[in-house]
Design goal:
alpha+beta; single chain; two-stranded antiparallel sheet; 8 strands; TATA-Binding Protein
Length: about 170
Amino acid sequence: MSNPVKVCPRCTAQAAIEACLCQACGHQYRTQFSVPLDRTQPVAPAAMHPTQVMPAIPTVSPQLPVSVKWIGYADILTNASLQHTHDAVAQAFHMFGVERVVADPVAMTVRGTTKADLVSAGQNVEGRVFATAQGTQVCITSRPKMQLFDWGRGKKEARRIVMALVSLLQQR
């Protein structure tokens, strides 16, 4: 009989149910599980083909509308799938005019830069997408490239990108 496992939401590697970190990518699990003592039937890990990818979280049914909840200044929580949300973040960056956009589907990040102007050397913008127990969470940050203070520019940019992202997710 094999031991029960959990699947890493970042790289889909299987890990022992008691593990705190994914051995493949270093992802820290937020929820800890224990093996129930009164289980009536053993659960074995599913056999996966090496090229098969298991989804990190269930995808939203096409019939259900995408819901979005603001949970911070530039943070949202949605019921859209992890991959759909990641793609929408990259599209929102392009819509906002972020340059040199690099989307990393493994780390679930999107990075880019904004142009310099009279008061700023530009901003480094980053979007992080990750699975939570409540759904898919997105955090957008915008930090100055060179100067110590951005005089509120980063917050304004991050908020505008999130507003574009919300409209993209709700158009789905």
